[in-house]
Amino acid sequence: MPWMAPGPRRRGRRTVARPDTRTAMTLRPDESGLRRLDLNLLPVFVALMRERSVTRAARALFLSQPATSAALARLRAAFRDELLVRSGNALEPTPRAEALLAELEPALRLVAGAVAGATPFDPATDARTFRVGWSDDVAIAAQPLLRRLREAAPGCRLVIRAANYRTIPAMLDSGEIGTAVGFMADDLPAAAKQRVLRRGGFRVLRDAASPGPVDLDAYCARPHVLVTPRGDLTGFADAALARLGRERRVVLGLPDFGLLRRVLLGTDLLCTASDALADILTDAITQVGLASDPLPFEPPVESVVRMAWRAALDHDPAEMWLRAQIAEALGPRR
User: How many C-alpha atoms does 286 have within 13 Å on its Cβ side?
Assistant: First the structure.
């Protein structure tokens, strides 16, 4: 009868059964759950666990708050658990959510690396957006880098966020930036990687027409400029001088390094700055008239410029290219 399923075919006296392709393609028990879950929900889950806030998770993922709330509802239904429950102004994870995060986060990093590695990058034709955070002193030193990036990757967009050692960890953790450059502490997120771009000391910046080089007596006698975003008028140099029984006189505090060149010119003011910043500010000495001298005492700290990035971007070809450009531009001079 035509509507009946065909039986086994006969070849002489032997019966050959057809393979059941439906059985062969059936998912294993540990894979069957993937049918019930939209995998796009997993990055939302990780962001919610990290931020403990629907609003902040939405911002980190560049989603709307309603879309993120809807994703949370779908996650709860898929895993048959509340996952995150309201506790005051924050969301607290359930034990089920904590266990899920421990298993899913490493797997998502591997998936992200595999997908990124399969995506080619040609700076001459690509049109992606890079998000970088750095402090204003790095921004000054990075001016040649910006021109190089525009020439090498004319279709790409670069978003630069103001960042410092206090804000960099949270900005990397939330995904606001993919890469950070500057002076940073060791409190970076566990899911971040880093490398040292440059180690060095400090130098004394001054107007090239003012007396120099600056020795310890001149350093203590002349007035100083201090770049102080927090508004205080003491820094590491004051602590080092105190151990020597000396002191300096800070007469001007600036919020950032962008004003430094104009402030120093035509004055007897001094400013203690990192080697990296001194290099770029004195590179065009015939144009801006600045000079730098060695610091006349041993500094208690080292000037270390680091680059940090999100581990999920570690194998992304585009981000790898960007990091190589930054390292070449901001590394030690040869």
Answer: 0
Q: What is the pLDDT of residue 22?
A: 43
**CA–CA distances in Å: residue 301 to residues 78, 182, 297:** 52, 15, 12
**Contact (CB, 8 A) for 164 and 182:** yes
Helices 95-117 and 317-330: crossing angle in degrees, nearest 10, is 80
Whole-angstrom distance, CA of residue 97 vs CA of residue 81:
8
Buried-state track 157-196, b at ≥16 Cβ within 10 A, e below 16:
eeeeeebbeebbbebbbbbbbbbbbbbbeeebbebbeeee
List pLDDT tens digits, range 236-250.
899 999 999 999 999
Q: How many CA atoms lie within 13 A of 70 on its CB side?
A: 7
Question: What is the per-residue pLDDT for 334?
Answer: 53
**pLDDT single digits (tens) 115-171:** 655 567 899 999 989 999 998 888 887 888 888 999 999 999 999 998 888 889 888
Q: Which two tokens stand for residue 260?
A: 């430094």
* Neighbour count for residue 156 (Cβ, 10 Å): 20
Rounded-to-integer distance, Cα 171 and Cα 298, Å: 33
In 59-125, where do the E strands start and end?
A: 84-87, 90-93
Is pLDDT at 20 greater than 70 in this prediction?
Answer: no
Quote the CA–CA distance of 251 and 228 in Å, as a whole number. 12
Tens digits of per-residue pLDDT, 65-76? 888 899 899 999
Summarize the confidence of residues 303-307 as an average pLDDT. Answer: 86
Answer whether residue 12 shows pLDDT above 90: no
What's phi and psi for 257, nearest 5 deg? -80, -10
Tell me what pLDDT residue 35 has: 59
- Euclidean distance between CA atoms 48 and 60, whole angstroms: 10
Q: Which DSSP string do the residues of 209-271 spell out, in sequence order?
A: TS--S--HHHHHHSEEEEE-TT--S--HHHHHHHHTT---EEEEEESSGGGHHHHHTTS--EE
- Each as own residue / partner, the long-range contacts of residues 89-95 (CB below 8 Å, 24 or more positions apart, any chain) are 90/52, 90/53, 91/48, 91/52, 91/53, 91/54, 92/52, 93/49, 93/52
